[in-house]
Write a structure and sequence with these properties.
- The chain folds into five domains: about 70 residues, no CATH class; about 160 residues, Nucleotidyltransferase, domain 5, CATH 3.30.420; about 55 residues, no CATH class; about 60 residues; about 120 residues, 2-Layer Sandwich (Nucleotidyltransferase, domain 5).
- The protein has 20 helices and 19 strands.
- It has a six-stranded mixed β-sheet. A five-stranded mixed β-sheet has the order 17-16-15-18-19, with helices on both faces.
- Strand 4 and strand 5 form a beta hairpin.
- Helix 16 packs parallel to helix 18.
- The radius of gyration is 43 Å and the shape is extended.
- The relative contact order is 0.06.
- About 10% of the residues have low confidence.
Length: about 550
Amino acid sequence: MTYGMFMVAKKLKHYFEEHPMTVVCEAPISEIISNKDASGRIAKWEIQLSPYVALYKRRDAIKSQALADFLVDWAEMQYKPPLPEIEYWRMHFDGSKLKEGLGAGVVLTSPKGDNLRYVLQIHFRASNNVAEYEALVHGLKVAKEVRVRRIICYGDLDLVLQQCSGDWDAKDANMASYRFYVQQIVGFFEGCEFHHVPQVENDVADTLSKLGSSRQEIPPGIALSHLRKPSVKPSPESESIFVPESHVVPMDIDRVNPGTALPNPGTSESKPEETISVDYMVIDMPVFVVREAPTWVKPIKEFLVNGGLPADEAESRRIQRTSKACTIINGEMYKRSITGVLQRCVEPEEGKEMLREIHQGECGHHASSRALVAKVFRHGFYWPTALEDAEDMVRKCNGCQRYSKQNHTPASGLKTIPITWPFAVWCLDMVGPFRPARGNMTHILVMVDKFTKWVEVKPIRKCDGHTAVKFLKDIILRYGYPHSIITDNGTNFAKGEFSWFCEDNKIRLDIASVDEKEGKKDTSGEETKRPWNVALLRPFYS
């Protein structure tokens, strides 16, 4: 056993060095290896195993353990499938009362995180509690039209929530009517709960309610509704709701003819009891116009609503994969694109009309098939055969086939637009050598702005990169950091300290080669010819 331990440590040396090892054996190996009186081969193996720290354990009887392991390995496991996750919609509501009037705000959030925001403008006088109840009633009606099954309602007014939950009694007659009305709507849901949250967590609904009460302009993406009369019949015993005649907008059939005089409210002919007579609002009144689902969407909608799948395994797998990007909003199917845009699913015939209008309508520009499909998708519409329909339309278009072979290239070559950014692009070069002047100056550094043609010069003694960096720092101090510098391939500009300075300050260095005729040296001792006018530079040099 000791020899076997020695061979294992020798063959698996890398395991023993990196990991703690446990040796389980019936023989007392730890006592044999740690015996100080050992000699011969045992002592040799002990020396070889001494660098490794191993834990030695004695093997106990395994008769009973073998029976337990056998039962675990061969017993049939009773698999219980996980319980399906129950998806809840969340609704945040709030009411507001300002000097301009009453308003309410509702935010509906789907289980996938899609938000539906609504603003309600209330056109009758009432208390803030009534505005809260109207917000709750409107939100529950919208949820019912969207066919929500389970919903959790959040609000920051504890009175309304406790009354709807049944924990508190409603002493006011109008509050009792509202509570009974809410309980009627709640009966359409499989599950509904009311929870109180702080105002900080209900800030979105609070903002929407203030938009409705202040009568401000509603931003795009938010639905606006007008409430002309309360959802319940006002009780004469309560003063929380009052509907004057001036605040009730009559229907077209009730409008007074232009030639008929309005009755005087102060005369005996006026009927005050008729000014507060209102009718009940119908619970089942539709809020949205629900369009019929397209044919190709019905299997996906059936799976999302009822969980039904076809018998074909491949088709059912395709529906399950496609449904992950789909959601139902207001009874209509929407598909979420890869950029997060919700696209309404339409019939192929309706999609072809959109493509035809974009391609050859009044503002059509006969774009390609991919451009047409991309434009339709960006506007929030989707159907699976969009690309094939667009390709077929472009292929059969008379105008595209007639004029596609014509040359559409410009008649003249394209011209580069000059840079119109002062002191952004500079040209840098070195002129010389000249005859030594005062201070032993032999060369001149010249920088010219490409746009304004402004010239900056500096006489220098040394033609190295450090001198060029000092000159550039003076330019930066007066005109700011340039975007790029155009210079030749000189070592003092293209390499070394100057190039490192430009790289550290994010200044692009463009290298342009110098013409051989202009950059050729003159061995006669005369001044070297450069693309600069030396006569103009002499005043700076002297």
